[in-house]
Write a structure and sequence with these properties.
The complex is a heterodimer of chains A (206) and B (98). Chain A is an all-alpha fold. In chain A, 78% of the residues lie in helices and 0% in strands. Chain B has one domain: Winged helix-like DNA-binding domain superfamily/Winged helix DNA-binding domain (Arc Repressor Mutant, subunit A, Orthogonal Bundle). Chain B starts with a helix and ends with a helix. The chains are: A mainly alpha (206), B alpha+beta (98). Chain A: Keywords: Membrane, Transmembrane, Transmembrane helix.
């Protein structure tokens, strides 16, 4: 009887420590969906690029800058969809466990995730400015990996590994310039799906 | 039995005080409203338990203003962290030995 009480006390301490320092309502399902959006986006981009190379198809008549805008808007749509899904599913999950979505821990998570990501965004603009287009895809992977690594201290620790693996992938991608889109699909698509599935199985729908 | 119990800290022998310390040892500082939210307790209840911990000199209080609103943050000091660790160890020993 006494032992049971102390055990309960210890588990309560653990739960408060987690609740007060980490945002734990991150949804695994949103990771899987983000991966699927990324794969669809990459498939459309590859299709458009292939069409562009084939000079007989209609798309090729477009000027190159238009193609750039098209690819950029695909990337943006994927990004917005992924963020929206993560937001909606995480707020649902938070509601179910009686937590607020917007409080000290989620703010801290967001800020620490955003700093490396924002740095990466600016850096990619600089690469574009200097016409180093081939390095943009590897750089997004590296900076996204750093963002995950940094954020892992404030949420489920598992995203630390997602971060490390994306950093490694990004560094490898720097040696295969021209295949950026495929590395992108692997990093943002496949790895997200794998990681989302792991989270989903580990922490459930709760 | 008495020997095992001697490290159990009376100051932490309450759910809310234990909860406050748990939140403070893993964070640099936590403000009043966040503590209230985490523990799900009323203002008066939380304040009285904080006062008890303050009296033991386990926590440090930082008062400041955010705009015009007063904001009070709490953090565990080294005495408090040490006492809390001792208490946890005692709890673990109790579980192992019973």
């Amino acid at each position: 009887m006494v032992e049971k009480n102390y055990l309960k006390e210890i588990s309560e301490i653990k739960s408060i420590m987690n609740k007060s320092s980490r945002f734990i309502s991150l949804s695994g399902l949103s990771g899987i969906l983000a991966g699927i959006y990324a794969l669809i986006g990459a498939a459309i981009a590859i299709y458009i690029l292939e069409n562009y190379k084939n000079s007989y198809s209609g798309v090729s008549l477009l000027p190159i800058s238009y193609l750039e805008y098209l690819l950029l808007s695909i990337a943006l749509v994927v990004l917005v969809l992924a963020i929206l899904t993560a937001f909606v599913l995480s707020s649902k999950k938070a509601k179910k466990s009686g937590e607020k979505l917007w409080h000290a821990t989620s703010k801290r998570l967001l800020i620490n995730f955003a700093i490396p990501l924002f740095t990466g965004g600016v850096f990619c603009l600089v690469l574009y400015q200097n016409n180093l287009i081939g390095l943009i895809a590897p750089s997004t992977l590296i900076f996204y990996g750093l963002a995950c690594l940094n954020a892992s201290k404030y949420t489920l620790g598992d995203i630390r590994y997602l971060g490390i693996i994306n950093i490694v992938l990004g560094l490898i991608a720097t040696q295969f310039i021209g295949y950026g889109l495929y590395f992108w699909a692997l990093g943002f698509g496949v790895f997200h799906i794998v990681y989302g599935t792991v989270l989903y199985n580990k922490y459930g729908k709760k | 039995m008495k020997d095992i119990l001697k490290n159990i800290n009376k100051a932490f022998d309450h759910r809310i005080r234990l909860g406050i310390m748990s939140a403070l040892v893993v964070n640099e500082a936590v403000d009043f409203n966040t503590l209230k939210e985490i523990l799900g307790v009323t203002d008066g209840n939380l304040a009285s338990h904080i006062k008890a911990l303050e009296k033991m000199n386990y926590i440090t209080i930082h008062k400041q203003f955010i705009g015009r609103k007063p904001n009070t943050k709490y953090s565990a000091n080294s005495t408090g962290i040490h006492a809390f660790k001792k208490h946890i160890e005692a709890l673990e020993n109790l579980i192992k030995n019973t």
